[in-house]
Design a protein that fits this description.
eight-stranded mixed β-sheet; 34% helix; single chain; 15% strand; 12 helices; alpha/beta; binds NADP nicotinamide-adenine-dinucleotide phosphate; Rossmann fold
Length: 253
């Protein structure tokens, strides 16, 4: 795998993935829709090894690219530029943010299948979608640590899945294989493994507590491989597996 990771989206998730990747010794190239200049503050904070670029440059220079944009953006991602790439799909459908998207039918198609269907020729890997951006950084642990957490992963491509398992291992997480993208509904919003077990509270996104500072400072908890497998196995599919921010405004921590 290349030592440079591409990231499309420089917000909460894109920024944290960049920090984890840099900590692990990768370089990162990040883009957004408004242009590299608007990412200057982020790359300065990230320091050596981080670069802002246009999406074309990210596609040109990297083979493993983390998608960290609002879900609704997936259908605007350029198919030709992303052909042949391994794409880590962190995207979750939040109607409040993404609007009504008739193609989302959570009872019968996983959102990652929609992403793969659009990005013909790319290898989509579902991962890093089921824990919040605060715990994503704070719960990362070196391989072998007793308090290391596991993240679910799915793909239709074994080689791409193996690459992302290695990437996750390097940045601080074990993996639990959910199978193909068709099985990845098990880690979507409202499912037992979604956010809450890592945050360590009963129901952050469904009831929407207003105390943002406790959300930001909560230490979180370890979700072991065994617990992750149990949570995935207990998932029950339904037709409203949508995210909800409740009363949170995560843009103003
Ligand atoms: N936040 C979390 O805790 C969390 C946890 C798990 C998964 N996720 C998922 O991860 C994804 C990103 O969430 P986030 O919280 O990081 O969102 P965010 O903070 O709002 O960041 C989104 C980023 O996407 C960029 N963007 C928007 N449209 C784009 C386009 N057409 N092309 C390229 N870049 C574009 C935005 O920059 P510009 O507007 O400047 O282009 C911004 O940098 C979402 O699908 C979310 O559901 C989030």
């Amino acid at each position: 795998m290349s030592t440079t990771v591409g990231i499309i989206g420089g917000g909460m998730i894109g920024g944290q993935v960049a920090r984890l990747a840099l900590n692990a010794g990768y370089k990162v190239i990040i883009c957004n829709s408004r242009g590299p200049d608007t990412l200057a503050e982020l790359v300065e904070e990230l320091g050596a090894g981080a670069q802002a670029a246009r999406l074309e440059d990210v596609a040109d220079k990297t083979d493993l690219i983390v998608l960290a944009v609002p879900f609704a953006v997936y259908s605007k991602l350029p198919v030709d530029l992303l052909k042949g790439k391994v794409l880590v799909d962190t995207l979750n459908y939040y109607p409040e943010r993404d609007g009504v998207m008739p193609e989302v039918k959570t009872e019968s198609i996983a959102t990652s299948e929609l992403v793969q269907r659009h990005l013909v020729g790319a290898k989509v890997v579902r991962a890093i979608n089921n824990l919040d951006f605060v715990r994503l950084l704070s719960r990362a642990r070196p391989a072998g640590a007793t308090d290391r957490s596991a993240l679910p992963i799915a793909s239709d491509f074994a080689d791409a899945k193996a690459q992302v398992i290695t990437f996750l291992d390097t940045i601080g997480y074990d993996s639990v294989d959910m199978g193909a993208l068709a099985d990845s509904w098990r880690s979507e919003p409202t499912m037992p493994i979604y956010v809450n077990p890592y945050w360590g509270q009963a129901s952050v996104y469904t009831s929407g507590p207003t105390d943002i500072s406790s959300f930001m400072s909560a230490p979180g908890r370890t979700v072991s491989k065994v617990e992750a497998q149990t949570l995935l196995a207990s998932a029950v599919r339904h037709d409203k597996m949508f995210g909800s921010l409740g009363s949170f405004d995560l843009s103003k921590p």
